[in-house]
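Quick start: read one record
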Amino acid sequence: MDAKITLSFNKSIIDKAKEFADENNMSLSRLTEFLYSKITSGHYQSLEDLPISDWVNMVSEGEAIYETKARKNKDIKAEYFKSKK
């Protein structure tokens, strides 16, 4: 049995959520219900316990790769001052 509730969200979040729901052939109501069912189906003691990373990975652009290279301070300073010219 469905029950109605009233929620308030930031408009940009709602717009993105509607687009996501549409892309997955579901209504915003069913998307919200799905997310609530995932949250309440586990034995989570706090928000930090939620396995949100799985959902974030599904909608993200992919894994971020950070590359760094060892540089000398002299080279870093030279690069900085070159960028200021």
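The mean pLDDT is 77.
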